[in-house]
Every structure is written in structure tokens, then in C-alpha cells.
Design brief:
By secondary structure, this protein is of the alpha+beta class. Helix content is 23%, strand content 28%. It has helices at 43-51, 64-73, and strands at residues 5-9, 14-18, 25-28, 31-36, 60-62. A 5-stranded antiparallel sheet has the order 4-3-2-1-5. The protein starts with a strand and ends in a 10-residue tail after the last helix. The mean pLDDT is 88.
């Protein structure tokens, strides 16, 4: 079973990561750091996820494999920390 589920905003190149125990996090291609959707600069994603408003129509569910491919294309080393 995958550890995370993902949504992707292709237009703005934003990846949203969900897990069972925490708040959703997002990463922008332009700023390769996971950050909370509750951060004020991410409020349109917070509204989309929690209220179904804002940019919800741009968020598409993607598989873990698709998310890993996007992250690799962005230059994120997915092998770091894996054994």
C-alpha cells in the first residue's frame, strides 16, 4: 500500500502529497520544498482540499509512480534515505 496519495496541478506545476496522519503538503517546481497547504501563500490549495473551492478543478489525482516521475524530473533524489 502506498505511503502517500498525490494530486497534481499541471498548469502551475504544483504537487500535493497526502498521508493518513498529517496535513497535506505541497511542492512547487519553482521551490522544491514540501510546505503545508495551511501556509497563507498556499491558501487556494487549502481551500480546494478542505472546502472544495478555489483551484480544486485543477487538482488531478495521480498515482505514486506518476508523482515519483514528476519529482525525478524536477531533480529530487528519490533514493535518498532508501536502503
Amino acid at each position: 500500500m502506498p505511503k502517500y496519495s498525490y494530486e497534481y496541478d499541471q498548469e502551475r506545476e504544483v504537487l500535493v502529497r497526502h498521508d493518513k496522519n498529517g496535513l497535506p503538503m505541497l511542492m512547487r517546481k519553482s521551490d522544491l520544498v514540501w510546505e503545508s497547504v495551511l501556509d497563507s501563500k498556499n491558501d487556494m490549495y487549502g481551500r480546494a482540499i478542505f472546502l472544495g473551492q478555489g483551484c480544486w478543478d485543477r487538482l488531478n489525482d495521480i498515482s505514486s509512480e506518476e508523482a515519483e516521475k514528476i519529482l525525478a524530473e524536477w531533480g529530487i533524489d528519490l533514493t535518498e534515505g532508501k536502503k
